[in-house]
Amino acid sequence: MLIAVGSDHRGIEFKKFIINCLIDMKLECKDFGSFSAESVDYPDIAESVGKAVVSGQCNYGILICGTGIGMSMAANKVKGIRAALCIDDFMAERARLHNDANVICLGAERGEAGVKQMLNKLFSTQFEGGRHQHRLDKMAKMETSC
What we know:
Shape: globular
Number of helices: 6
């Protein structure tokens, strides 16, 4: 499994922690930046990660900014991305189980507590399908009709 990881300048240190967690979980990752503390525009990083996931180059994406909100909003502009802002393992599990999230967004200011559990839930939970699939179909239709 290959995970696309990206952050803005405020999330660089947290991104390093996330990458180490992924390595500990025996998962491969590709770092899409940012690579310095110099200010960057988070939509650029979100677009790069989103395109890598949608194209199949990467299986999932993790995006990080100060709160995770901006990355979540930007990532969801990429057709085919279902990005979820997650703050705990319950949200990560539900993001996969009910919404088939392919990107999660994290806030660097939130800190490291509980992040490993959140990643474990994300990668161990399968999409439930069934009654949830028609909602995803409606969202996909919105991408082309709005």
